[in-house]
Amino acid sequence: MRARKRFGQNFLHDQQVIQRITGAIRPLPSDHILEIGPGHGALTQDLVASGCHLHVVEIDRDLAAELRLRYPGLDVIEADILTFDFNSIRSDTPLRVVGNLPYNISTPLLFKLYAHAEMIKDMFFMLQLEVVERMAAAPSTSNYGRLSIMSQYFCAAEKLFEVAPASFTPQPKVTSAIVQLVPHVQQAPLTDIKLFQKMLTQAFSLRRKTLRNALKAFLSEAEMLALAIDPGSRPENIPGADYIRCANYLSSRDAPATAVTAAAVE
Ligand code: SAM
Prior knowledge:
Layout (H helix, E strand, L loop, with lengths): L10 E2 L2 H11 L6 E5 L7 H7 L2 E6 L2 H10 L4 E4 L16 E6 L5 H10 L4 E9 H8 L9 H9 E9 L4 E2 L6 E8 L9 H13 L5 H4 L6 H6 L13 H26 L1
Parallel strand pairs: 2-3, 2-5, 3-4, 5-6
Antiparallel strand pairs: 1-8, 6-9, 7-9
Helix pairs in contact: 4-6, 5-6, 7-10
The structure holds S-adenosylmethionine (SAM).
S-adenosylmethionine binds next to strand 1 and strand 3.
């Protein structure tokens, strides 16, 4: 099997692992499923057999052609999932998204999927074990960070099982894991997601400092205290709900200033 490194191609060949994954997904004929990066069809086979409404998005032209030949009725979309318009496959049935993901694009892809969480029922992904552990990490653990807070803001994230390098061709250098993500029916209100992300990036770039220092460009010590946040604690010790409270406070604090500036320009 020829594998293109730039597309993060590590093909799953272990039938036991494949059955475990499709057993966890349990595709039904009434499901609407999007598979990202079907490759040679390791997971696609069982998805097609389930009779579900299936779209697959594959960037590699040769693999897309191979899948079209093998499954003539299948909707094979040759595209980069990072620029793919999810609205183009929107339907009345919430989407289930699955895939053995190319590890080199996993973080931007997850953030893109989170932005469409409202149209997604659940997701099952093979990822680097380290990434799965970061997604599911609790505060005050070494894996806790921006990805944990963003993942858990949008979804319930659960690691299902690990997959050894020997299950793939070629073998990756790292252990993998399957994660299940279920978007929350209702998310905590968040006024400005971009501001939230900016604040998290800043906080975790200085994760060993105190919040007083790590977030000083955003909040004064007095403001932190008023928001019931200990300025002496570290970014990695703070639950997601506290960051949401800070971000919402910042949006309301800075909104009038923006309005004045806009009026001044006019
Ligand atoms: N699903 C197959 C399996 O389990 O054997 C292949 C998994 S392989 C890790 C990742 C797949 O994603 C490859 O088929 C690769 O060509 C495809 N891929 C990589 N980057 C992509 C992108 N940006 N958009 C869509 N597909 C991509």
